[in-house]
Amino acid sequence: MVKKSKIGKVTSATPSVLIGGAGGFWGDRTYAPVDMLTHNDLDYITMDYLAEVTMSIMSKSYSSNPKLGWATDLERWLKEGGISLLREKGVRLVTNAGGVNPVSCAQMVLDVACSIGWTNCQVAVVTGDNVLSILHSSAKEGEQFQHMFDKSKDPLLHHDEIIAANAYLGAGPIGRSIAKGADIVITGRVADASLIVGCMLHASGWAQNAENENLPICGPIHSWSEKDEQESLDLLAGWSVAGHLIECGAQVCGGNFTNLPANVDISDISYPIAKISFDGSSIITKSKGGGIVNRASIIEQLLYEIDDPSNYITPDVIVDVSMISIEDLGDNQVKVSSVSGRNPPERLKISSCYQDAYFITSQLLVPGPEPLAKAQQTDKILRKRVAHLKDIIIETEFFGAGASLPLGLRKILDKTTNSNPREILVRWGVSSKNRQSLNIFASEIAPLVLTGPAGVSGYSARSKPRKQLAFFPTSIGREHVEEQVEITFIHTLRSEIEEKYPWLKHNLITRIDKVITNSDSRTKLAVARVIRNRLHMPRIRKVSN
Questions:
Q1: What is the pLDDT of residues 382-391, one digit of tens each?
Q2: Would you say 301 and 250 are in contact if contact means Cβ atoms under 8 Å apart?
């Protein structure tokens, strides 16, 4: 039933492809995608909803309600005009809003599409990133999963306390989904930049090449190109850098920017657009609104979260930006080129979390004079009063004295600024395997208002212990993951009938629509609505190679 996609608005003869990056995490400005679609003629729009810890939050939601576990902000902006704009402008949406429950998310998307009459909307779902069962089976075979960044930590334990483990998939299934006819692609955990690279696999024709050859949907995707291996890797590296620059949304347009010019207004900040060429270069610009895109904002975002600039690891390609060219073209346009790539890694990153101890947080406000000394005294008093609790771990932060700053920056500021503020907010984070010990600790916070140093105030109610989720990044051989990755299409029964039996569209389906629109008969109206609801029921079909 699923049609092969035509390249549509872009072909390999087109100078560039326009891809919007309309969000950087679940909690970003909800309706930014609607603004971007309204003011721009895009080929694709992408939404990155998943930060490292988001999958853990979604896993908890899913465990309490099997219909949840996805980014619900997607539904809000689609209903506020987003779905209509996608249809009217022919823009394809690619997003990881599916979280741990991409099928339910996709069913929501189809329902919203049907509500505006887009009954032939093709929604593709990419699954296979959930590797919890693979971790357990691999552990039984003796494999140890080490922490990716802190080798001093014990290997990941394999027991019932692990609530989520998701591998970072690459761009292959996204590109193949669009090549198979998807208007909207919903994924779970994929690498952030891969959302954009997947669009380029379709726009460049690589994904269609792979379809024609019936190649594995996860790649290696550089083998889908008709170019030689090194040129293909370099192209993927360039596309990955463009994706990396826009996947954090407005962060590249002046948001969270340490060198923001004083005259730049970010109250109505806009979101980025990448004009990506088929030679691997790109021009990063922005949508209508406030903010700025310049060489400095590009460099700051480029170095964000990549670790080694000569060894930026993605599932699709290992990127080297050490010889990158960044040219400010003016008018909020920056050209990025000269990026090189190497073969993709043999292992995929896993974002996992497990149920750890219980924890609470509490805070008090300590005023001057000498607020830091008084705050430290308050902390000492509290620690003496709970010294009998041997099973708790206390972490104390002094906000206002540099607690939120990296240690190096804190030392610099201590030498150049007045390090004694007018007030300090003391924040305690306490963890324990014993809930009762935490309750006892919490009961000692409020009394400090009258039994501690002068002026202490601002206490809240006694904190209640909560289960703590511990984050554990690790990796796994990609062959174990990619063999379970699947593409599923969700579409309406109506679109399937119209595809197979086109004569029914006029003889039956169109008449039902007319009855619903024009009939004065309650009976006819009720019957027609029942039939239409049946026609709009989602149909699920796996179409993976």
A1: 999 999 999 9
A2: no
Q: In 3D, which of 39, 110, 38 has the Cα closest to residue 74?
A: 110
Q: Rounded to whole angstroms, how far apart are CA atoms 505 and 494?
A: 9
pLDDT of residue 161 exceeding 90, the answer is no
Strands 16-21 vs 466-477: parallel, antiparallel or unpaired: unpaired
Q: Is 454 exposed, middle or buried (0-12, 13-18, 19+ CB in 10 A)?
A: exposed
Does this model's pTM top 0.90?
no
**Mean pLDDT over residues 165-171, rounded?**
96
Please give the mean pLDDT across all residues of the chain: 88
Q: Is the dihedral of CA 501, 506, 512, 513 positive or negative?
A: positive
Output the six-digit token pair for 410: 């804190």
> In angstroms, rounded to a whole number, what is the distance separating the alpha carbons of residues 77 and 73?
7
Q: Which residue has the tokens 């208002």?
A: 449
- Residue whose C-alpha is closest to residue 22's, from 52, 41, 55, 44: 44
Q: pLDDT value at position 353?
A: 85
Which domains can be identified in the chain, with CATH numbers? 16-129+168-345 (no CATH), 357-473 (3.30.70.360), 501-542 (no CATH)
DSSP letters for 173-187: HHHHHHHTT-SEEEE
Q: In this model, does residue 323 exceed pLDDT 90?
A: yes
